Request: fold
Amino acid sequence: EFALKPLEALVNLIPNQPYKQFLHTDQGWQYRHQAWQKKLKSAHITPSMSRRATCLDNACIESFFNKLKVELGNLSNYNSAKELITAIKKWIIYYNSKRIQMKLGGTAPISYRLRAA
Reply:
């Protein structure tokens, strides 16, 4: 349930796209579980997992989470899980819409994607 609940929320949030969608995870048992795989398949999402002991397979998401952890700061700064979740949601909006990235030509990810489209 811990892994399926956010997956359900994601599936309900994103529309069914005409292009192939991937969801990248590590090899945790919850992501290999039959219920997780079945949900991905029914949502037309292709699972993607890094190979064992190969961090480069997952480099882009590892980089994202490193930035998240560094920029949000120490977890003890938050008084509750709700406060931390709110901070993470705000940071993700900031990351996608305002935080410039040199590898994207000095633009934020959403601006880059719109320009590329």
Observations:
- The chain has a mean pLDDT of 84.
- The first strand starts at residue 21 and ends at 25.
- Strands lie at 21-25, 45-49.
